Amino acid sequence: MTGVSQQPAPLASFKKIRSMKILVATEKPFAPAAVEQIREVTEAAGHELVLLEKYSDASELHAAVADADALIVRSDKVTASVVEAAKNLKIVVRAGAGYDNLDLDACTAKGVVAMNTPGQNSNAVAELVFQMMLYNARNGFKGKAGTELRGKSIGIHAFGWVGKNVARIARGFEMNLFGFDPFADESEMRDAGVEPCGSAEELYSKCQYISLHIPANEKTVKSVNRQLLMSMPAGATLVNTARKEVIDEDGLVDVMKERDDFSYLSDIAPDNRALLEENFPGRFIFTDKKMGAQTKEANINAGVAAARQIADFFATGNEQYRVN
Ligand code: 3PG
């Protein structure tokens, strides 16, 4: 398979230019070591770093971004009103993969470049997939006999950065790997030991485990529905480290009612968490905050990549990783 992270531009390539104010706004902060390295990159490029961490209200972000030239965020919502409040903003980088939290139209309308940092946190997310699968397969380590991953089928729904890392780890567990991604190169999947499926329907009907890696957009929201989930083989387990919005939550409730062999493991709770936990105890894992990318290594990789991309954009106009 190909590498698992992009190569950031070398620091030496940054030219000295006017000092810019770079705001890191993270409701869920980066690890301190990541902030330190983001500061090093920023200051080495001649810019000023400002931090807004653990804020509880969007008004704090509006105030902090007012004089920022650049903005680094995680899942923080960069709405039209944030862009409006940011009178000097030239670039926003989502330090991570999914950029459904950025209002791209608002950015484009204001001439603000929007980027992400693909691949930088993908190993951390893939490791969480297996942490949740193992915990669930062993019934929470409470003494009851569980099951093994070896020999089970896993369907990788979208073969991007995280999907590729999931495939790499699943091979180590000797699972049978299947994948569906209409945008992926089938030969790349085969090289990674993944048998390509022609449709989501085929993937779900073949796999006891499904690991979701599709983005949340107008085509995918609520697309993981009752019909797909009902078609999964016995002992079905849906693992969602993507976005809660891609699940049809009413359909999920139906599936839980109709199948007592079905588990849902999700990095971030669904909107109907209380209902599910009350009616189907022991068949879920929900994180309280999104934890997939929350490792020191992923924070450093994604945060430093974001800072380098901004410094490089100001120095050379490089717009690689632009998403709008
Ligand atoms: C991503 O899209 O990169 C992940 O969902 C991680 O999001 P986070 O940075 O908010 O943890």
How would you summarize this macromolecular structure in one to three sentences?
This protein is α/β, with parallel strands linked by helices.
Could you list some keywords that capture this structure?
alpha/beta; 2 domains; 324 residues; 36% helix; Rossmann fold; binds 3-phosphoglyceric acid
Task: Explain what this protein looks like in three dimensions.
With 324 residues, this protein is α/β, with parallel strands linked by helices. The chain folds into two domains: 11-120 and 295-316, NAD(P)-binding Rossmann-like Domain (Rossmann fold), CATH 3.40.50.720; 122-286, NAD(P)-binding Rossmann-like Domain (Rossmann fold, 3-Layer(aba) Sandwich). It contains twelve helices and twelve strands. It has helices spanning 32-44, 58-65, 80-85, 104-109, 122-137, 161-172, 186-191, 200-206, 226-230, 249-258, 273-279, 296-316; strands spanning 21-26, 48-53, 70-73, 91-94, 113-116, 153-157, 176-180, 195-196, 209-212, 237-240, 263-266, 284-286. The strands form two sheets. A seven-stranded parallel sheet has the order 8-7-6-9-10-11-12, with helices on both faces. A five-stranded parallel sheet has the order 2-1-3-4-5, with helices on both faces. Residues 28, 74-75, 96-98, 121, 290, 292-294 line the site of 3-phosphoglyceric acid. The site of 3-phosphoglyceric acid has 11 residues, from loops.
